[in-house]
Amino acid sequence: MRFQVGDTVRVKGERRAGHVRTPSYIRGKTGLVSRVHGTFRNPEQLAYGQDGLPKVPLYYVSFDASEVWGGPPSADRVVVDIYEHWLEPVDKGRP
Amino acid sequence: MSDRHEHGHSPTDAHAPIGLEDGESAVWSRRAAALQAVLAEKGVISNDEVRATIEDWEAKTPAQGARVVARAWVDPDFKARLLANGKQAVRDLLGIDTGTTELVALENTDQVHHVVVCTLCSCYPRAVLGLPPAWYKSLAYRSRTIANPRSVLREFGMQLDPSVEVQVVDSTADIRYLVIPRRPAGTEGMTEEQLAELVTRDSMIGVARAREAVGSRQ
What we know:
Chain A is mainly beta. Chain A contains two helices and five strands; from the N terminus they run ββαβαββ. Chain A has one domain: Roll (SH3 type barrels), CATH 2.30.30.50. A five-stranded antiparallel β-sheet of chain A has the order 4-3-2-1-5. In chain B, 43% of the residues lie in helices and 11% in strands. Chain B contains ten helices and four strands, in the order αααααββαααββαα. The interface between A and B is medium-sized, with 24 and 19 residues. β4 of chain A pairs parallel with β3 of chain B.
């Protein structure tokens, strides 16, 4: 597991076609790892008849709704399950 | 007893046949039927297996999930196990396997309200809630809930206090989510079976509260 609960992460901004389980609205956004679900076969490979191995960690990543959609700050959250290869670390010391 | 097809159907007639074969859905229906025919012809699956699988899925109902929630309301140890490992807790209680996906229970409180959506397709905890309602799969629910949950909840008849934090959970991957609605007030004396009657499908998706106990609104 590359990330732990409490880590700040950024979703990669890649534009990829095909069977991708990371919704486009969340790409490039910064959130907080709130749960680690475990590891799963990579569905982005399974969809094309591959074995999806090695398994990839899946995280429950929580975002400020205003970070995702803009608008005034609020306590509301958007939570998305994201596979590890879509996430990169964010240095908390810098914005 | 008159046959309903003898009625004169106007376009606004509520009894008019629903045009399921219209438009795009007909293309997919034909494709599915063609695939099934080929697979049956090659002996990969039989038509009876397909029929039995459909029957099996259609037999699953939200009553399963309601039993899980009612138990969680009355048994703090079970609730703790459900929140820690939903799949195992459901297997222990109902004796059913939730399949290859994991089941995660999300507890609604007076401070946090969870509502579940799958923006990419229609991921849904079918093992405990049965088949999803048509609106859950609609583009409108999927696109609007993720971006503006409070107004969608209002349309479902649910006004949340601004101080309650809304968490929209996008079920995009290998996890299926079951919302544990808040236990209604005035239900202290009710049995687990009576409590389960208050737990609706929509409350376990997070678009509604559990039903109130009869008489509790007096």
